Amino acid sequence: MPREVSSTLVDQLIDCAGKAHPREACGLLLGSNDVIGEVRACDNVHPRPETHFEIDPRALIEAHRAARAGGPEVIGYWHSHPAGRPEPSATDRAHATGDGKVWAIVGEGTVRWWRDGPGGFEPLSYRVTGG
Predict the structure, then answer these.
(1) Which whole number is the average pLDDT over 109-118?
(2) Predicted TM-score (pTM) above 0.90
(3) Cα–Cα distance between 92 and 38 in angstroms, integer?
(4) PANTHER family recorded for this chain (predicted)?
């Protein structure tokens, strides 16, 4: 099923990744149904942020609480590869859970979208909308 995301949010992902360089940027993808409505940057709390990411657990818990209270759902996660391609790394694949969440990976000035499926990461079709 295709996802929908605005060009503004794609630009925001690329901008956040650039500002964090040479560290990995990371965060949450929020929305409802098939529409990604918000990209939320979160602190990368991994001890080696130049090559790994870990979304601040407090931000993740707060987002899930807000969703239970009627806010946007956590559709997935995003992170950057400061020196790599926008595709799942060996580390990403090792941490995959098969939960069906969307992952956006920023690298080389572009964003690619993936689903963390039962058999590993699968390319995800998506549609970029204006503004």
Answers:
(1) 95
(2) yes
(3) 22
(4) CYSO-CYSTEINE PEPTIDASE
